[in-house]
Amino acid sequence: MQLQTKSLGILEYDKKAIIHLPEGMLGFARLKDYVLIENPETEPFKILQSLDDPYVAFPMVDPHVVEPEYRCEIDSEDAESLGFRDPIDIITPVVTVIPEDPTKSTVNLKAPLLINQHKMIAKQVVLTDSSYGTMQPLMPVPGQDECRVDSQ
Amino acid sequence: MLVVTRKKDERLMIGNEIEVQVLKIGRDSVRIGIKAPQSVSVHRYEVYEQIQAANLAASKSQLPPQGALSGLLKGLKKKPVE
Questions:
Q1: What is the value of ipTM here, to two decimals?
Q2: How far is B11 from chain A (nearest CA, A)?
Q3: Is the Cβ of A5 closer than 8 Å to some Cβ of chain B?
């Protein structure tokens, strides 16, 4: 199948690659079908491209790149609605905002997208009890590394 | 906006499936219980608004040009401490 996209040109995809979000992304409730595009040129980002609106795409990143200890507690209702049996089926990429100055990119660790890779269904959940922010810096804060060196 | 007065323990129905109950009334806050089908997500408004804004901003992201991107990624790759 083919889709003309805004930023990625003509995209070829297999029907099996379609990820269905019954509730859509928050704020994008009408857009329910996506593909997650992996491309060596955009690593470590993946692009979550809407199949309903070629102009809508979200850069996604594995939260462990930013927060190696990242933990995502899924409540039983969410787990059930996504048909999770085995945690191996799940990936939890987070939405990335890449502004004009890419060094100011942020990630939304509070609302990961839970994808059941086996069933190809997904849901953006809110980790209500976590202290993760919705706009945490993607890059280490400048100066922090130097401080660490000083303290050693 | 529909405005309704409810006392403690009284409920509201929204449609046929969503039940809202006033559980506790404090000085500056009320405790509310919500029963809704699994397909309905309930969010605190402020959090919903923040995530909606973050999603909207993300959807406007442009992947930076190749060179800039590899520069950006260097910061993310953990170098072993010497």
A1: 0.82
A2: 23
A3: no
